[in-house]
Each structure stands twice: as structure tokens, then as C-alpha cells.
Design brief:
Elements: E1 2-3, H1 15-28, H2 38-58, E2 66-69, H3 72-83, E3 89-93, H4 98-109, E4 113-117, H5 128-133, E5 139-145, H6 157-166, E6 170-174, E7 193-197, E8 209-213, H7 251-267, H8 269-288, E9 293-295, E10 308-312, H9 317-328, E11 330-331, E12 333-335, H10 340-346, E13 353-356, H11 364-379
Parallel strand pairs: 1-11, 3-4, 3-5, 5-6, 6-7
Antiparallel strand pairs: 2-8, 7-8, 9-10, 10-13, 12-13
Helix pairs in contact: 1-7, 2-7, 3-4, 8-11, 9-11
Bound molecules: pyridoxal-5'-phosphate.
Amino acid sequence: MIYLDNAATSWPKPESVYLAMDEFLRKNAGSPGRGSHSMSLAAAEMVEETRMLIARFINAPEKERIIFTLNCTDALNLGLKGLIRPGDHVITSCIEHNSVVRPLRKLERQGVKVVRIPTSVETGVVSPRDIEGAITGETKLIVVIHASNVTGVIQPIEEYGMVARQHNLILMVDAAQSAGKYPIDVQASNIDLLAFAGHKGLFGPPGTGGLYVGSRVDLDSLREGGTGVFSEQEEQPTVLPYRYESGTLNSVGISGLGAGLKYIFSEGLEKISAHEQYLTGRLFEGLSNIPGLTLYRTKDGSNQASVISFNIEGYEPAEVGIILDQAFDIKVRAGLHCSPSAHKTLGTYPLGTVRLSPGYFNTDDEISFTLQALEKIARAKIP
Ligand SMILES: Cc1ncc(COP(=O)(O)O)c(C=O)c1O
């Protein structure tokens, strides 16, 4: 079996992730921060250690500014709905994931104005100048995807950060596809809100994610409830992270996420990124030689995450996905990838594309086998 769907969720996980979750659930899975017995204290210690590792990873000034969420979607919802009010103006791109598109559509129905900036046809990038040109007196937020989950193109978030600071706006970045793959420095890049998935590049299990909340942002909470601290108050505490973390946390997931982060620190982000870049380069090269295969790639190709989209003449993308799975045991994702607007930009709406997203554990042999499989599929339609 070959797994090439790491952009959806990474698999396999490092061995240490499985071990950490198994050990935590067997030995220490008390309710974190909810008691003074040793299991509860051990669980709280693990949660705070993971919070600290994430803070270190993105250079957050304080670990309390890392909020654990259900996934990246949940983090994006908290950032958008906690910040934006009727009458506000939001600038975003035309290539966002539905986890940004749909909350913004809902906010629009409540009186929020949203402007969507297209990407350049040559580079796939949203120009910082275009973002700056869209600013009005009501603009509160710029929200952009870091690496596209359809084409893999990486956006210049540092430049967006400069624009946001110059105009005293909030910058929120959707780092679902980039966290764990590229260095992110929220302070140097002037990022106020960073939403990330724990279960993709960070090697945690599904059901993990988070939001970094910078000091310039005063977000409302989306849910209130027990926090294990300030229990005498009937009002939700305003202290971070408790303001946004009501209810029992996914401590088993967070233990796996912590082990995933330790794995990245010990392997080194550069090594992980270099291997993925190498595999992506091999795929691009091999795919470009397959007859009848159209690659959706920018001309430059230098600012590219390990996400590749293509189509094969004579097939719908879903058919290619099924053949790869059933005839070759290769797992890929075909269709719209929860990003219809990105596919409209590419001209691949409504059927979408076939997406390959190699990860750190894929091998050269797996890439060769996949290329051979795709060549066979493509040639079957050539008369
Ligand atoms: C760019 C992007 N944003 C957000 C998400 C949502 O992530 P999650 O599944 O963790 O909610 C994804 C997931 O594929 C994504 O690719």
C-alpha cells in the first residue's frame, strides 16, 4: 500500500506518536487541570508541555497564546467568528479552503463585507499590493492560506504581515498545509492569528489542531464552560488559554501531537522538508513526461509545498483515484479538496483534480511505482 494523501492527514505517524498515545491513555489519562490527584496533574503537565513545544515551534511569545482546538477548521472558526462583527470588512483570497470560505459566507449574511483577491495566473500568488489596494476604512482582517491544498503554492505571508502592520490590521494565516513543513515565526512575520492542523505536518492524530492568538487580538469565545480553574466564577474566565478552552481537552490526541513535535525537533524541519521537496520534484518530473497528463503547476515552481494536482485525458479525476486505489493500492485524493473556489481559479471546477501529497515517510520506490501506475492509466486511453 502506498499512501499519498498527506495533505488530508499524515500517515503513517512516527512510531513515537503511537507509543506516546498508548502510554498516556493507559497510565496518565486523568482529566487535565481538573483535580489534584497524580493522574490529573500528569495529564495537565503533558498538555502544557505540548503547548510549550508548539509555542517554540512557531516562536510564540508565550505558550498560553496557543489554544487547542478540534482541528484547523475549528481554529479558523474561532479566529473569524471571535473577531469579526457586522459592518467589518475582510480581505481574503480566491483560493481559500471551505474552512475559511464557509464561515466568511455566514458572516457576510450577518452584514460583514468580504473582498476576495485573485491569484496571479503565472505565479499562483496573491499579490501583497493587491491586498493593500483592497483596504478600506472598515477593514479589520486579512485572512490567507499559507500553502494551497490544491496546487501547493506558498503565499508570501511575511509581506502580508508587513501590509497588515502598516495599516494596523489583523493578519490571520491558515497554516493547515504548512505547519510542520516550513519554518513559521509568528512574531517576525507579524501574524496575529495562526490556525494549524495537528494531524497533518505536525504528525499528531486526527482531532488535533490549534490557534495562536497574538496580543493585538481580542477574540470573543465561541463556547463557554468548565475550565478547571476560576471555577467560582459564573462568567467565562478571560485568562488565556482558558478563555477559549472549555470542556475536557482531547488529551490523548494532544499527547500524540506532543510526540509528533518532538519527532520534528529531533529529525529537523530542514531534513523533513528537503525529503518532501525531493519526492515532489521527482513526481513533477515524472508526471510531466506522461502523455495526456495535465499538471496544474505554476511556471516558476520554486515556492511549492508537497501537493501536486493533475488530470489525465479521458478520465474524470474521481475515476483515476478509484483505479489507483483498487488496481494499484495507492491512496490519493480526487475531486475538489474542499476548495471549490481554488478549482474555479484553476479552471478545474466542478470535477476537480487528482492530488498527490507525499510525506516524510514515502520512499523513492513508492514514487517510481506511482509514476508507472499513472503512465499505464494514461496510456490505456491513448488509441
Ligand atoms: C488549507 C486547509 N485549510 C484548512 C483545512 C482544514 O483542516 P482540518 O481538517 O484540520 O479542519 C485543510 C484540510 O485539508 C486545508 O487543507
